[in-house]
Amino acid sequence: MATAAAPSTAATTEKKKPVFVKVDSLKPGTHGHNLTVKVVQSNTVKATGGANRGGRSSASLNPRGPARLAECLVGDDTGSILFTARNEQVDMMKPDATVILRNAKIDMFKGSMRLAVDKWGRVEVAEPADFGVNEENNLSLVEYELVNVEE
C-alpha cells in the first residue's frame, strides 16, 4: 500500500522556480515576493530588549541579546521602499550592496508600506547589480488609509 503513494509524493516535492518582481509592483498586504534590490542607505533604529521590565532581566527572555532593528532604503530601477532589517539582516544591509530578498512581505507602519523578511524568508548578499535605484518613486512615501466597506 505504501509503494502506491510514493509516485504522487515525488511529483509534489518538485520546487517551483522563484518569480522575481520589481519594486513598483508591490501592494499593501501582500507577501511571497522575491526581489533583487540595491541598498541606498541603512539607519539603525534601536536595539530593543535592553530595559529591565517587570522585575525580570531581558537576558533571561532573549538569550541572544537585544534585538537589532534598522530601516534601509532599498530599490531597483522601477522604485524604492523602506526595508525593515532585523538582527542578522542588519549586517547585510550596507549602502551600495546588492541583496536578494526571498519570500518578502509588505507590512503597514503608520499608513505606509514597509518591506520585511521574517523567519520564513531569506536575505542574501548577491553580486553587484548594474542598475540604478529610482528614488523618485518611493513607495514608502505613499500613505494608505484603511477603509471599511459596508455591504
From TrEMBL:
The gene is LOC104211949. InterPro entries: NA-bd_OB-fold (IPR012340), OB_Ssb-like (IPR048970). The lineage of its organism: Eukaryota, Viridiplantae, Streptophyta, Embryophyta, Tracheophyta. Gene3D superfamilies: Nucleic acid-binding proteins. This is Uncharacterized protein At4g28440-like. Pfam families: OB_Ssb-like (PF21473). It comes from Nicotiana sylvestris. Residues 26-125 form the Single-stranded DNA binding protein Ssb-like OB fold domain.
